[in-house]
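From: lab user (bench 3)
To: helpdesk
Subject: output format question, protein + adenosine-5'-diphosphate

Hello, I'm new to running complex predictions and I'm not sure whether the block I got back is the full result or only part of it. Here's what I submitted:
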Amino acid sequence: MERQAIEIENLRKTYAARGRMGPKEALKGVDLSIPAGSIFGLLGPNGAGKSTLINILAGLVRKTDGKVTIWGFDQDTNPRHARASIGVMPQELNMDPFFSPRAALEVQAGLYGVPASERWTDEILELVGLTEQAEAYARNLSGGMKRRLLLAKALVHRPQVLVLDEPTAGVDIELRNMLWENVRRLNEEGMTIILTTHYLEEAEAMCDEIAIINRGDLIVRDSTPNLLARMDRKALVVEPEAPPTDAIALPEGVALETRADGRLAFTYSRGKTSPEAVLDAIRAGGIRIRDVATEQPGLEEVFVELTSDRKRA
Ligand code: ADP
Ligand code: MG
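Helpdesk reply: Thanks, we reran it on our side. This is the complete output you should expect:
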């Protein structure tokens, strides 16, 4: 059986009421397993519960209910091993302004009980491109450098699973490319990577599998090729001179839906059917076309559709 890096069962989190805010149910019973060796993308709009999920994995937020297993270690019965198996690059820039990158990594290694002989501080600094700034005060680092340092800190104990919470939100292209390069390289060396991102093209380019969460619920989890296949669907929308009287013989894989406004939407897979074949079928069905349009869902639309509460008519 395929090894799972992370197994999450019925994970729930309700934040306690604060001030005038009532209690907040941030995760409503999430089941998710993430195979070892993959680059896994967690997508969802703001407030979906991504950081909550990730912070529970990191041991920074206490779950309300459910079971979390990291690299085979149950978080409740084996918290030390569970924690040692995962490294997290948090979304927030929180760091001590007086530490240099090198000192910050040494402190972090100490916190994780990494013996001096097993530390790889110089290699990490090199990997994230902070060798020249190794001795600089953290407060003098640029925002991008601070982010690199956050990634570096997540690596000190050589975790099997690396989690990055919106690593590229608001960073420049150069840093983004550097981050993705590092992620790919670490993955090639065997590390399982979990990341959250709003950049859907990036999830598409980077991730083997993608899960989408919205308002604390897991909406979809599929391989990236399968999600892309959904986007391979294209629609030819025809306004007929008159409503069709007989059933239309459709090529295989083409679906017909009559819309509320009387238009006929023929959806087909770009990879399998040509628009010419669809038009031929329409004409052969005796339909006279008053007007025609094409529609093509992008990942954005698939995402919006999957996460919207209202089903499309
Ligand atoms: P995401 O990372 O997907 O944007 P979060 O996990 O940060 O989502 O937040 C999920 C929900 O939980 C949001 O409604 C957020 O306001 C709420 N939330 C997050 N942290 C806290 C907290 N410490 N106390 C109360 N509510 C919180
Ligand atoms: Mg977040």
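A quick orientation on your result: The chain has a mean pLDDT of 89. Let us know if anything else is unclear.
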